Amino acid sequence: MSVRVRRVYEPPEQRDGARVLVDRLWPRGLAKDAARVDEWPKALTPSTELRRWYHAGEGSYEEFAGRYEAELAAGGAAEALDRVRDLAREGDVTLLTASKTPERSHAAVLARLLEA
């Protein structure tokens, strides 16, 4: 089992396994056929408020990660996280994001939680 984080704009690879889009909005300028997304659990995405707070530069990545983890522990997000955990137990999973810095995005937080 491996969990990878990649930009959704990168071409799909055979080793991607299940491709899970973890952004709330569909990536701009990307055709759905080209993305080859297997799952799109919108409940896993950070709240609009948290996303805006982080992108406004009001807090550190570490603080963002902590707040995001708290959101993931609640309701529908926890169920969606369990679903992706099940996919990861079955094989490789690639978390897809449009973020220009995926290593400092919510996708990286998700990958760390899934690998734990």
Unreliable parts: none
Tell me the β content.
5-15%
Span between termini: 12 Å
Helix content: 40-55%
Q: What count of helical segments does DSSP give?
A: 5
3D shape: globular
Organism: Streptomyces lomondensis
Protein name: DUF488 family protein
Question: Notable features of this structure?
Answer:
single chain, 116 residues, alpha/beta, three-stranded parallel sheet, 3 strands, 12% strand
Written description of the protein model:
InterPro entries: YeaO-like. Pfam families: DUF488-N3i. This is DUF488 family protein. The chain is 43% helix and 12% strand. The protein has 116 residues and is an alpha/beta fold. It has one domain. It has a three-stranded parallel β-sheet with strand order 1-3-2. The mean pLDDT is 92.
Q: How would the blueprint of this fold be written?
A:
Layout (H helix, E strand, L loop, with lengths): L2 E5 L10 E4 L10 H4 L12 H8 L5 H12 L2 H16 L2 E5 L8 H10 L1
Quick structural summary:
The chain is 43% helix and 12% strand. The chain is α/β, with parallel strands linked by helices and 116 residues long.
